[in-house]
Specification:
Elements (H helix, E strand, L loop, with lengths): L7 E4 L7 E4 L10 E3 H6 L6 H8 L4 H6 L2 H10 L4 H30 L1 H12 L1 H12 L3 H30 L3 E2 L2 H27 L4 H29 L1 H21 L3 H17 L4 H4 L13 H24 L1 H7 L4 H12 L3 H8 L3 H29 L11 H17 L4 E2 L2
Helix pairs in contact: 4-5, 4-14, 5-6, 5-14, 6-18, 7-8, 7-14, 7-18, 8-16, 8-17, 8-18, 8-19, 9-10, 9-18, 9-19, 10-18, 17-18
Protein name: Sodium/calcium exchanger membrane region domain-containing protein
Main location: membrane
InterPro entries: CaH_exchang, NaCa_Exmemb, NCX_ion-bd_dom_sf
Length: about 425
C-alpha cells in the first residue's frame, strides 16, 4: 500500500504567518516545521562547476547563442559590414538577456515574492535602459523614442496576448483580479496621457523647441515622482490590501482547478488538512494555499555579483556595437529606423517571466509584470532619458512623439482595457 506523502512546511522567520511547502518531502507522521535558515544551510555546496551550470548552461538559448558574444566583438573590431555587425550583436544580446533572467530568478529566491515583482520588472527592462542610454550618448533620440514606444506596445499587446494564448491552452478559463489590474492600468493611462500634452503643444500650438524642451524636463520630474508614489502605493501603503485581493482570486482559481478534476491537489489538500488536525502545524487556511515547489538558490552570492557585473558590461558593449551600425544598416538594406526601433529592438526586452506565470495560471502576476514594465518604461526610463539629455546640455530628447507613435500607444491601451475588463481570459 502506497503511503501518502503530503507537503512539508516551514515558516518564514521574518513573517511567521507565511508558510512554504515542499512537495512530497516526508511521510505523514514525520511532518515537522523547518526554518528558512535550515534550508539555506542545506544548500551551501557551491562550486565553480555548479555556478557555471546555473548560469552559462542554464538553458538551450544560452548554450547555442553564447558564441555570438565574442563573434560580435570580432566583427566590430575587424570593420565588417554594418549589416553583419548589427545582426551578430543583436543575436549576442539574446544570451546576455537570458543570463540576466537567471540572475533575476536567483535574486527573487533570495529576496522573496514581495520584492520579486519589482526585480523582475526592473531587470526585464535592463536591456531597454541600456539601449536608451547608449542611443542618447550616440545622439540618436529617435531610436530612444521608437524603441520605448515599441517596448510598451510589445508588453501590452504581444506579451499579454501570448500569455492569454499559451495559458489558455493549458487552462480552460483563467481569472485575474480586476481591482489590482485596474489600478496598474489607470497608472498606464496616466503615463500615456502625460505624453499627449507636450505632443499636442508642439503640433497644434506651434511652441518653439526651447520651450518644449523646458516643459519636457519639468514634466519628466513630475513623472518620476509619480512613479515613486506608484511604487510606495503598491509595495508599502496598500501592500496588504493588494495581497488580500490576490489571495482571494488565487483561492477562486484553485477552487476552479479542483472542480475540473485535479485529483492530486485535492488529495494533497485533504492530507494537509489531516496533518493540521493531528499536529496543529498547518491551519486550514494555509492548507488551502497552492501547493508548490519552493526552489533553493543555485548560485553562490559571489558568483551572482560577478555574473551581474560581467553581464551588464557585455550588454553595454554589444548594444553600443548594434546602435553604431544602425545608420549603415538603414543605408544598405530596406529596413528603416522606425522598423528597427518599433519592432526589432523591443523584441530583446520582452519579459518571458510573464509568459511562464501565465502558463502556471498566475494571470494576476503575469499581467502585473507586463503592465508594470510598460509603466516603468513611460514613468521612469523615458523621463530619465530626458533628464540625462538635459545633463548633457542637449535639447534633442523631449516628450514630443509623432502622431503614429501616440496613436499606437492609445490603440494598444484601448485593446488591453477591452480584453481585460471582465477579469477572465482564454486562448
Amino acid at each position: 500500500m502506497n503511503r501518502f506523502y503530503p507537503p512539508a512546511t516551514w515558516k518564514d522567520e521574518e513573517d511567521p504567518s507565511r508558510h512554504y511547502y515542499l512537495e512530497g518531502a516526508l511521510p505523514l507522521e514525520q511532518i515537522r516545521v523547518f526554518s528558512w535558515s535550515w534550508l539555506q544551510k542545506k544548500r551551501q555546496d557551491y562550486t565553480v562547476r555548479t555556478d557555471l551550470n546555473a548560469t552559462l548552461f542554464a538553458s538551450w538559448r544560452i548554450i547555442l547563442l553564447l558564441p555570438a558574444i565574442p563573434t560580435g566583438f570580432a566583427v566590430k573590431y575587424t570593420n565588417q559590414s554594418p549589416v553583419a555587425t548589427f545582426a551578430v550583436n543583436f543575436v549576442a544580446i539574446i544570451p546576455i538577456g537570458s543570463i540576466l533572467d537567471v540572475v533575476t530568478e536567483e535574486l527573487v529566491i533570495r529576496r522573496g515574492a514581495d520584492e520579486g515583482l519589482v526585480l523582475i520588472v526592473t531587470f526585464g527592462n535592463a536591456i531597454q535602459l541600456v539601449i536608451t542610454v547608449i542611443a542618447l550618448v550616440k545622439g540618436q533620440p529617435s531610436i530612444v523614442q521608437t524603441s520605448l514606444v515599441g517596448a510598451v506596445i510589445s508588453n501590452t499587446v504581444l506579451m499579454v496576448g501570448l500569455g492569454f494564448f499559451l495559458g489558455g491552452l493549458k487552462h480552460q478559463v483563467q481569472n485575474f483580479n480586476r481591482m489590482t489590474t485596474g489600478s496598474t492600468f489607470n497608472e498606464l493611462v496616466l503615463s500615456i496621457v502625460a505624453l499627449l500634452i507636450p505632443t499636442a503643444m508642439a503640433h497644434f500650438q506651434y511652441i518653439d523647441p526651447p520651450t518644449i524642451a523646458k516643459f519636457s524636463r519639468a514634466e519628466s520630474i513630475l513623472l518620476l515622482l509619480s512613479y515613486i508614489c506608484y511604487l510606495v502605493y503598491c509595495h508599502k501603503t496598500h501592500k496588504k490590501i493588494i495581497h488580500k485581493l490576490n489571495r482571494i482570486e488565487e483561492g477562486r482559481t484553485r477552487e476552479a482547478q479542483l472542480g475540473h478534476g485535479d485529483a492530486w491537489r485535492g488529495i494533497a489538500t485533504i492530507g494537509a488538512t489531516m496533518a493540521a488536525s493531528a499536529g496543529g502545524t498547518i491551519n486550514r487556511t494555509a492548507a488551502m494555499r497552492q501547493i508548490q515547489h519552493i526552489p533553493l538558490p543555485k548560485i553562490s552570492s559571489r558568483a551572482l555579483v560577478i555574473t551581474l557585473i560581467l553581464d551588464t558590461v557585455l550588454l553595454g558593449f554589444c548594444t553600443t556595437f548594434a546602435v553604431d551600425s544602425i545608420d549603415g544598416l538603414t543605408q544598405k538594406t530596406v529596413l528603416t529606423r522606425n522598423f528597427i526601433g518599433l519592432i526589432l529592438l523591443p523584441i530583446l526586452s520582452c519579459n518571458l517571466h510573464a509568459i511562464r506565470l501565465a502558463i502556471k495560471n498566475k494571470m494576476t502576476d503575469s499581467f502585473a509584470i507586463n503592465v508594470g514594465s510598460s509603466i516603468q518604461l513611460l514613468l521612469c526610463i523615458l523621463p530619465l532619458a530626458v533628464i540625462i539629455d538635459w545633463i548633457r546640455n542637449d535639447s534633442l530628447m523631449t516628450l514630443v512623439f509623432d502622431h503614429f507613435q501616440v496613436v499606437s500607444l492609445i490603440v494598444s491601451t484601448m485593446i488591453l482595457k477591452y480584453i481585460t475588463d471582465d477579469g477572465k481570459s482564454n486562448w
